[in-house]
């Protein structure tokens, strides 16, 4: 079945430093979504990427979809303590548009 | 967007018993999904519940163990049957509006 790996598994940064998580799939994706899960919380939708090479920005967050549509990345500029949480990529597919969640990257930000 | 509630929020159950988790959405939705999440792990899709038809289960999950009901467009239940300690996890339901999925707060299940 489809596997979606994320690296790193865990990242600890000082507040103000940048952060990037990478998402890699073994198969070509039709689209990919990103979710954030705060500690003790539930996943919250961030964005969807559909087109090859697509880049989208949300304030300090930059999302990119690879040219081959097999990988994606999320970059956070100048992290803040509010960025703490686990970031999941999640390709969507199948007849029911189900999501297959990646392994996730846990971000810790030290003030 | 959608607001989703789940009941119970947590429970401690004895092995061999069953627990039914309820999921309520504040609007009518076609698709609802049930996930399992072990602490510190990713989400694993259990099944997709489409109103008016039988749920579609992912590999490794079977209806006898995780029966699902979807009686209308705003409600679904997941039963964890004949529980064992390995079933201890957080169970989340979600619904889809457009292409976004919205999640409930989860049910933390501990099986002793």
Structural summary, described in words:
- The complex is a heterodimer of chains A (111) and B (112).
- Chain A has 111 residues and is mostly beta strands.
- The model of chain A has no long low-confidence stretch (mean pLDDT 95).
- The N and C termini of chain A lie far apart (40 Å).
- In chain A, the strands form 2 sheets. In chain A, strands 2, 4, 5, 9, 10 and 11 form a 6-stranded mixed sheet that branches. Chain A has a 5-stranded antiparallel sheet with strand order 1-3-8-7-6, with no helix packed on it.
- Chain A contains no helices and 11 strands.
- Chain A is globular, with a radius of gyration of 13 Å.
- In chain B, a hairpin with a 2-residue loop joins strand 9 (89-97) and strand 10.
- In chain B, strands 2, 4, 5, 6, 9, 10 and 11 form a 7-stranded mixed sheet that branches. Chain B has a 4-stranded antiparallel sheet with strand order 1-3-8-7, with no helix packed on it.
- Helices cover 0% and strands 54% of the residues of chain B.
- With 112 residues, chain B is mainly β.
- Chain B is globular and about 40 Å long.
- Classes of the chains: A mainly beta (111), B mainly beta (112).
What key phrases describe this protein's structure?
heterodimer, A: 111 residues, mainly beta, Immunoglobulin-like, five-stranded antiparallel sheet, 11 strands, B: 112 residues, seven-stranded mixed sheet, globular
Give me a quick take on this structure:
The complex is a heterodimer of chains A (111) and B (112). Chain A is an all-beta fold and 111 residues long. In chain A, 0% of the residues lie in helices and 54% in strands.
Find the count of extended strands of chain A (DSSP E, 2+ residues). Answer: 11
- SSE order of chain A, one letter for each helix or strand: EEEEEEEEEEE
> Globular, elongated, flat, extended or rod-shaped: what is the shape of chain B?
globular
Low-confidence stretches of chain B: none
Strand coverage percent of chain B? over 45%
Kindly provide the radius of gyration of chain B, computed on alpha-carbon positions and rounded to a whole number of angstroms: 13 Å
Q: Given the structure, what is the number of helices of chain A? A: 0
The count of helical stretches of chain B stands at 0
CATH superfamily of chain A: Immunoglobulins
CATH architecture of chain A: Sandwich
Largest interface: A-B, 22 and 23 residues
What about the largest sheet of chain A? 6 strands, mixed
Strand portion of chain A, in percent?
A: over 45%
CATH topology title of chain B? Immunoglobulin-like
Helix content of chain A: under 10%
By secondary-structure content and strand pairing, the structural class of chain B works out as mainly beta
């Amino acid at each position: 079945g489809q596997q979606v790996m994320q690296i790193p598994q865990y990242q600890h940064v000082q507040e103000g430093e940048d952060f990037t998580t990478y998402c890699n799939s073994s198969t070509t994706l039709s689209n990919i979504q990103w979710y954030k899960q705060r500690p003790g919380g539930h996943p919250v939708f961030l964005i969807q990427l559909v087109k090859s090479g697509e880049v989208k920005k949300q304030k300090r967050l930059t999302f990119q979809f690879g040219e081959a549509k097999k990988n994606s990345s999320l970059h956070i500029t100048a992290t803040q303590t509010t960025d703490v949480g686990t970031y999941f990529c999640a390709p969507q597919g199948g007849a029911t548009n189900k999501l297959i969640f990646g392994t996730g990257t846990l971000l810790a930000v030290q003030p | 967007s959608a607001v989703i509630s789940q009941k119970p929020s947590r429970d401690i159950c004895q092995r061999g018993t069953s627990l039914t988790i309820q999921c309520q959405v504040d609007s009518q939705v076609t698709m609802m999904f049930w996930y399992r999440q072990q602490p510190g792990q990713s989400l694993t899709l259990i099944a997709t519940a489409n109103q008016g038809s039988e749920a579609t289960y992912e590999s490794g999950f079977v209806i006898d163990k995780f029966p699902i009901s979807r009686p209308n467009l705003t409600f679904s239940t997941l039963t964890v049957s004949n529980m064992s300690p390995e079933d201890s996890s957080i169970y989340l339901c979600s619904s889809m509006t457009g292409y976004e999925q919205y999640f409930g707060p989860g049910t933390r299940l501990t099986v002793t």
